[in-house]
Amino acid sequence: MKYYLIVGEASGDLHASHLMAALKETDSNAQFRFFGGDKMAAVGGEMVKHYREMAYMGFVPVLLHLRTIFANMRLCKQDIVAWQPDVLILVDYPDFNLSIAKYIHRNTKIPVYYYISPKIWAWKEYRIKNIKRDVDELFSILPFEVDFFEGKHHYPIHYVGNPTLDEVTAFQAKHPSNFHQFTTSNGLTDQPIIALLAGSRKQEIKDNLPMMVAAARSFIGYQLVVAGAPGIDADYYQEYLKGTEVKLLFNQTYELLQHAHTALVTSGTATLETALFRVPQVVCYYTPVGRLYSLIIKLVLSVKYISLVNLIAGKEIVQELVAKRMTISELHNELSRLLHDKAYRQQILDGYTEMAQKLGTPGAPRKAATIIIQKLS
After folding, report:
1. What domains can you pick out in the chain, each with its CATH number?
2. CB-hemisphere CA count at 13 Å for 19?
3. How far is CA 250 from the centre of its chain?
């Protein structure tokens, strides 16, 4: 069968690549065409556009690149229609993907499947109307979404488990922990590591990394290591790391988390990855308009938390220093607790165990691939 996939960022590229691999295991004749990234390209098929040419975050960048965004949408719609896949598989990236879904549903008979459902439970809940109208099958990777979609909106979905659990489990099986080897091969010392995961976009890094470094540098006996994001040049990080002893590692985020003592993490999939590696963390998300952002959160967001760890658990496991709460002083105080309070660290680890149980067992891509092929057969 012919599968057309669309992703808009690095995490989507990762999850989609595993789904593609699972589809190939069952469908030996699988053909892929996609808007995606390097990991999807490694599985096979033809990449029409790289997600790096599509990912714009924030009001001003989107406004400045409207012409490019609309051109990408036109290209995508035309390419799908010309290729005539057996199914269109959308992966997160709702602003772009829901527009594509509307067009394809209205103008073709190509079924539209959504893998990694849009987070409309957080905001823009009105989009449920678009999903009900334009999406034939919805696949969820967060357990609490079942009640939201099926219980609240009477829209049946497939909960397949969380692919991040698969990815972390597979990594740990192939890479036994060896702290000495990791530090030696990367020019690090034997001191405990504070991992800094400052986001995947330049604006996130600009807003968060300097404060992370400023808060963590004062703790003696630890080394700071930044996980470099794919698609971001090392020179960009050096603007914020020059004059410090902070190390920067690319393409080793899982290795870093495997050997980290504590982590400072911006919101996103990284918070879940950090929890699955059982690293006590504080979630950080600074914005220059902190007070305004805090007000917007109260007025617009429909959830109590922003980190996947707390959302999945349904309670606060890790501290979230967001908007006006994200200050060097607050970050320093929370980091001090993480480093020195053994009971507090254990409390977080116990919370991680509870959260992981709610995720279920590994196998999300394989479960999703099985359902997709069964539905299309």
Report:
1. 2-161+361-376 (3.40.50.2000), 167-359 (3.40.50.2000)
2. 34
3. 17
In contact, 36 and 53? CB cutoff 8 Å:
no
Alpha-carbon gap, residue 371 to 308, rounded angstroms: 25
pTM of the model: 0.86
Beta bridge partner(s), residue 88: 4, 112
**Residue 290 pLDDT > 90:** no
353 backbone dihedrals φ, ψ, rounded to 5°? -60, -45
In the chain the beta strands, taken as DSSP E runs, fall at: 2-6, 31-36, 46-50, 87-91, 112-115, 137-140, 158-159, 193-197, 223-228, 247-250, 262-266, 281-285, 320-322
Q: 20-31: per-residue pLDDT in tens? A: 999 999 999 999
Give me the sign of the Cα torsion angle 276, 186, 202, 230.
negative
**Nearest partner of 118 among 161, 148, 83, 160, judged by Cα:** 148
Residue with tokens 């530090």: 183
